[in-house]
Design brief:
- The complex is a heterodimer of chains A (665) and B (295).
- With 665 residues, chain A is α/β, with parallel strands linked by helices.
- Chain A contains 17 helices and 36 strands.
- In chain A, the strands form 13 sheets. In chain A, strands 10-7-6-18-31 form a five-stranded parallel beta sheet, with helices on one face. A five-stranded parallel beta sheet of chain A has the order 20-27-21-22-23. A four-stranded parallel beta sheet of chain A has the order 2-1-3-4, sandwiched between helices.
- In chain A, α11 links the parallel β21 and β22.
- The longest helix of chain A is centred in the N-terminal third of the chain and has 20 residues.
- By secondary structure, chain B is an alpha/beta fold.
- Chain B is 48% helix and 10% strand.
- The two termini of chain B are 28 Å apart.
- The chains are: A alpha/beta (665), B alpha/beta (295).
- Chains A and B meet through β24 of A and loops of B.
């Protein structure tokens, strides 16, 4: 006969108001197998927990039922109390009489009857509970960072400096990300490259960081603590070991008119190129789609001029497998394209759809303002190289516009637009800077002060309203809009228009998330495990998020999140082994027919092949086996198994039928 | 023979007679029967819905009930405002099916809630009709540079009731190409002509329409094409006054979409009512006869 204790919590008034807890205790006490039943105002409090412990000790309980709030809230609390009194924690169960009873009912007698039913069911289950033990999983103390922008760099350096070996994967030929393209950074106007490039070098030189540039994550297998990641190292066509980074190849390459992605299309590069002078690694890559040799088989100039003989036209993509225990995704953002915004979004034909040369986006303006940019930091417009005398900045292009498919605020544009207008005024003193805005959102340390400085000191004209149309006329751009505060239509003739286009996740973000089992929203921004309390972890165990891949962010926020992600990895790696909940599926190998229907439905790849052999080692038959380290206990296999050879620990058929029988005698 | 209910609206029986004439002429060549709906009334235009939504819907319902009674195919109209009001009334009925019987009783007739409402230009742009037009083109426009002007109500309000994309419509340009002309890229094709302010505030119309004419001319247009009688009135009838005010050294002929298509189909300019315009449409100068004869 079982010796079960039942504890009913009032949760202050939360449960007690609707459920007659004393009556529930009375009814529970009369159930067969229950030796103790009491109610208490706050079971989760110290005295409440001590009641449970005392009962286990004094009455030699072999099962505990706590009727209170959601197990998501306090199951760990009561299981810990149970464990501390020497009883297996999996013999303690919670009945949710708050969310699933008192909060959703008004009729007190009926709610009390329901609470009694729920308790009776759980008592029947607990009678059949068995001792379960956490599964110990070994741990690879090595972390993967996907993305080599400022967030990835920060996470990698923090982890490496904590002694954790790091593997960094960057899809571009150099690390540095968008931050390397920026001119100066708000609100302090320090030079972006000056603060970033030393960190890039630190990554390259850190003994604990393995860097894979021009590489992408191909495949992810395994689970927290034990991921096996296959990385595709795209063929660079340059032998990294031989190359000295002298740069002669890119000087001699006859193909020089290729728009440079680093210069946001405003500058040019060769077909063999180092993306920018401070690139890490500072070694070139051949753009095979534009290289004459790859297109026609002719040329080969770079191969001839390369002293060390590093150019290798035959190089193939390579695959590298890295074993890691955790990953930080830091894949960053891209800007919304007004001409070709992609599936589900609408562009801005009314702004010329990307066809007007002097209508540029924020990153292009950064390159114009940057000392390392195509104009050497002078603001000269793309069409004819003239210094623009009137520049109009449009905020919220794409963002906060449901008609275009993006309802969210891109968060950083108010600040960088103020910075752009201010930088322009600093460089072209007599110039006129006009900003069209919907709202100025500048909540951050020193941020609003910065915007006020642009307005007050630098005399940037802020007009509240949207622009309906941009078109070229007589070498200028007509900006047709409305000033909603003055209540009048505006028509401004501008020499240059800068669009603060929406921040979007990188192309391929969703595909990468699927590989890691990370959730993402309708725009493919990665979802955090909890919006307030777990903002840097994804719901996939062992996979953390950093930077703009999770939502639009500025540099300080991206860096803060990256450091937090690194800390989360360090916490994970502080343990010898990982404990996993023992609520996993197990196969009864004596009845398993080896049909492997379970393997097909398992979303986690936890079902393995098991060979049953006799003493002579002869193969008798094959059965399924569940890798407890991978299983998430979803139960899909249990429902699928045609021979009922699978069961879920803690939720066996016997337990569930006992609960049903208790409800429907 | 494909038949349509036809709702001309007030303008097409008065100031825009030539639009009505050209619609009927083009329909004739394409073998479409137009059944003008009996006892139609004002569509409500701008004033009705600006003052009272109820009145606006009753006017629309009246005409929809009369159109349903013709038993012909889709309801065809040439006016941007009529098009907008009829579609709005129809959408209202579909959005509130429970109120439909009362609406029908009020206007004394059954209303088919799924009655299709087409603007003439939409019909011409429909692939089967476009193909039929292409097969019958006898006098292509030989690259005539045409600025297509949409104005306000054809594409707005945006959504399922709209004629084409609200920001980047291409329907009229496609029709110009179909007629052998060359649509001009110009930025003001969706801007306002001044609409009904022609009566209370003619100065505003002169400013707004003047801007349109000047821009179309600056971008190389030899003619403008419209699909709305009010746009036509403002751009054509007001043009002499605008030209004087803005000191134009050019004349900009303004043609209805059915006049452009009608010319390409070889219909006589007089049949298309081109002689009724204020700004003369010199067809032989616009479409040199020499090249036309080669077809």
């Amino acid at each position: 006969m079982s010796r079960i204790g039942v504890f009913i919590c009032h949760c202050g008034e939360n449960i007690g108001r609707t459920v007659d807890c004393a009556r529930v205790a009375e009814a529970a006490g009369a159930l067969p197998g229950v030796v103790h039943a009491v109610d208490n105002k706050y079971m989760c409090s110290d005295p409440g927990q001590n009641m449970v412990r005392a009962a286990i000790r004094d009455l030699k309980l072999d099962g505990v039922v706590v009727a209170a709030c959601s197990p998501a809230m306090h199951e760990p609390t009561f299981r810990r109390a149970t464990f501390n009194e020497g009883l297996n924690p999996f013999r303690c169960e919670m009945v949710n009489v708050r969310e699933q009873c008192s909060w959703v009912h008004e009729d007190r007698p009926a709610a009390t009857d329901k609470a009694i039913d729920l308790v009776r069911m759980m008592v029947e289950k607990v009678k059949r509970n068995e001792d379960l033990f956490p599964i110990k999983v070994p741990l690879t103390r090595r972390a993967l960072v996907v993305g080599g922008g400022i967030a990835g760099i920060q996470a990698a350096l923090d982890m490496a400096n904590a002694g954790i070996p790091v593997v960094m994967v960057e899809k571009e030929p150099s690390i540095g990300g968008h931050m390397s393209q920026l001119s100066e950074t708000f609100p302090t106007l320090d030079c972006s490259q000056c603060i970033l490039t030393p960190r890039m070098v630190e990554v390259a030189q850190h003994p604990l960081i393995t860097l894979h540039t021009y590489s992408e994550v191909e495949k992810v297998e395994g689970y927290i603590g034990n991921f096996r990641v296959t990385i595709r190292k795209k063929a660079r066509s340059v032998d990294m070991a031989k190359c000295t980074g002298c740069g002669v190849c890119q000087q001699k390459c006859p193909q020089k008119k290729i728009p440079s992605a680093f210069d946001a299309g405003l500058g040019h590069r060769a077909a063999i190129y180092i993306p920018f002078p401070q690139a890490v690694p500072n070694k070139p890559v051949i753009d095979r789609e534009r290289c004459t040799h790859f297109k026609t088989g002719k040329c080969g100039v770079c191969e001839k001029v390369c002293g060390p003989g590093a150019v290798d036209f035959e190089q193939q993509d390579e695959f590298v497998v890295e074993n890691v225990g955790a990953a930080v995704l830091a894949t960053g953002y891209q800007l919304y394209d007004i001409g070709d915004p992609g599936a589900g979004l609408r562009g801005y034909p009314e702004y010329g759809g990307g066809k007007i040369a002097d209508v540029i986006d924020g990153l292009q303006f950064e390159r114009l303002a940057s000392a390392s940019g195509p104009t050497g930091g002078e603001i000269r417009r793309p069409s004819d190289g003239k210094v623009p005398q009137t520049v109009v900045f449009l905020q919220c292009v794409g963002s906060r516009d449901r008609a275009k498919g993006i309802e969210y605020c891109s968060k950083i544009c108010c600040m960088y637009t103020a910075k752009h207008a201010l930088l322009y005024k600093h460089k072209v003193h007599e110039g006129k800077a006009v900003v069209f805005y919907m709202d100025v959102r500048a909540p951050g340390k020193g941020y609003d002060e910065f915007v006020r400085r642009a307005v007050e000191q630098d005399e940037v004209l802020y007009l509240r309203g949207k622009v309906s149309r941009l078109y070229e006329d007589g070498g200028q751009i007509v900006v047709s809009g409305v000033d909603t505060l003055a209540g009048r239509q505006m028509e401004i003739r501008a020499d240059l228009v800068v669009l603060a286009t929406a921040i979007r996740p990188q192309t391929g973000a969703a595909r990468l998330a699927q590989k890691f089992g990370v959730g993402y929203d309708g725009h493919a921004f990665y979802s955090e495990a909890h919006p307030k309390l777990r903002p840097v972890e994804s719901a996939a165990a062992g996979v953390m998020l950093a930077g703009a891949c999770q939502g639009p962010k500025d540099i300080p926020e991206a860096v803060a999140q990256a450091s937090a992600a690194a800390a989360k990895v360090a916490v994970l790696f502080s343990r010898e082994t990982l404990d996993r909940e023992p609520v996993v599926a197990r196969v009864n190998e004596t009845v398993c027919a080896g049909c492997f229907a379970c393997q097909e439905v398992c979303p986690y790849g936890a079902v393995e092949l098991n060979e049953v052999r006799d003493r002579q080692g002869r193969l008798l038959r094959r059965t399924a086996r569940v890798n407890a380290g991978v299983c998430n206990g979803c139960g899909t296999c249990v429902a699928t198994c045609p021979s009922k050879s699978l069961e879920l620990a803690g939720y066996t058929d016997e337990q569930i039928f006992a609960q049903i029988s208790a409800l429907v005698p | 023979m494909t038949s349509f209910s036809y709702y001309p609206g007030c303008s097409l029986h008065a100031t825009a007679r030539e639009y009505d004439e050209s619609i009927r002429a083009v329909a004739g060549v394409l073998g479409f029967e137009l059944r003008e709906i009996e006892d139609w009334c004002c569509c409500g235009a701008t004033p009705a819905h600006a003052i009272d939504a109820e009145s606006a819907h009753v006017l629309g319902d009246w005409n929809l009930a009369r159109a349903t009674a013709t038993g012909a195919g889709p309801l065809l109209t040439g006016c941007a405002s009529c098009f907008s009001r009829l579609r709005a009334a129809s959408a209202e009925l579909r959005a509130h099916p429970a109120a439909a019987p009362a609406a029908a009783a009020r206007v004394g007739g059954r209303i088919d809630p799924d009655l299709e409402i087409l603007h003439v230009a939409q019909l011409l742009a429909r692939s089967d009709v476009s193909e039929a037009v292409a097969a019958k083109v006898t006098r292509p426009l030989n690259g005539l540079k045409v600025a297509c002007y949409y104005g306000c109500l054809l594409t707005r309000p945006r959504g399922e009731n709209a004629f084409d994309d609200a920001e980047d419509p291409t329907l009229l340009e496609d029709l110009v190409r179909l007629a052998g002309g060359e649509p001009v890229a110009w930025p003001l094709r969706l801007d306002c002509c001044g609409a009904s302010l022609a009566l209370p505030e003619p100065g505003i119309v002169r400013d707004l329409s003047g801007k349109l004419l000047a821009m179309a001319h600056a971008r190389g247009a030899q003619a403008m094409m419209v699909a709305c009688p009010l746009c036509h009135a403002n751009l054509d009838m007001t043009q002499p006054a605008i030209a004087k005010q803005m000191k134009f050294d050019f004349e900009m002929p303004v043609l209805y979409v059915t006049q452009v298509i009608g010319l390409a189909l070889g219909i006589e300019p007089r049949t298309l009512g081109l002689h009724r315009h204020i700004v003369p449409v010199r067809v032989d100068a616009l479409i040199p006869a020499r090249e036309a004869n080669h077809v």
